[in-house]
Amino acid sequence: METLLQHCQDQGKSIGEVMLDYEVKKSGRSREKVLEMMVERLKKMKEAVDQGSDDPSPAPSGISGGDAKIMGQYRKEDHPFSGPLIFDAMRFAFATSEHNARMGVIVATPTAGSAGVLPGCLFSLYDNAGYSFDSLVMGLMTASAIGFVIANRSFVSGAAGGCQAEVGSAVAMAAAAIVELKGGKPAQAIHAAAISLKSMLGLVCDPVAGLVEVPCIKRNAIGTAIAFSAADIAMAGVESRIPCDEVIATMYDIGRSMPRTLRETSLGGLAVTPTGKKVKERLFQQNKDEARRKTESQPCRESNVD
């Protein structure tokens, strides 16, 4: 992050602008083409938010789905304590993650399991704070720069480093994007990334039945609130005492220290609670029954052997 910040200071540009320049140079595409590609990704995010928000149906597993709709109803009938901005961010994170669980199209930011955080934050800003769609594109560039650094210095996979690597990275990406969208300096955006990521260190990856649904979806929602909190803290002028590069390195060390049972194997944590085990057994039996029915429904083939 120190190198990224130096580039920003030397060129007098934001993190998003520096990342855009880098992508143009590395890909060989024009600036217009790169922005066009980012617009397409942002549109896919919006589709996931919109479709997920209105869909009350459960995911094929039956263990998630419909909570975004419930959140929307509460939003209409009451005044959430967290306020419209943060509440809608959580709601949109639910919507995106549930859409993913239903096999809908999402944008991995940085992974499918953490794909709700960034669109949740961006489109809440779009709906509640008057940010234009074009401005969100640059927010997406800022987020991609943070994710790029984390992926190259640590990991973004739950199987490699726990949920801190997935949702933690997504929260850091979102926090930095929020700061730059609000007009904050690159240094403040990097402090926001560090502050948010510090809050996620040590978070294990323990998906029930091996599915990216429980507890993943709710962690995405809570992650949006952490991103906005870290952004406000950094915008106020509070700095992370531990540099962002060191926070990322610490995440890597913690991930390497995590036992295999807590890195997306579903052999520990919430996955092995009594309820978690029951869900797994039910789903495995359901899959076996379905496979048997398919086999039985297939017509027998006559042998050609005399």
Task: Report on this structure.
The chain is mainly alpha-helical. The chain has one domain. Helices cover 67% and strands 0% of the residues. The protein is built from 13 helices and no strands. The longest helix is centred in the N-terminal third of the chain and has 24 residues.
Shape designation: globular
How many domains? 1
Name the helicity range: 55-70%
Task: Describe the main β-sheet briefly.
Answer: none
- What structural class do you assign from the helix and strand content? mainly alpha
By DSSP (H or I, 4+ residues per run), the number of helices equals 13
**Overall mean pLDDT:** 97
Give the number of DSSP strands: 0
Oligomer: single chain
Fraction of residues in β-strands: under 5%
Question: Which series of helices and strands comes N to C?
Answer: HHHHHHHHHHHHH
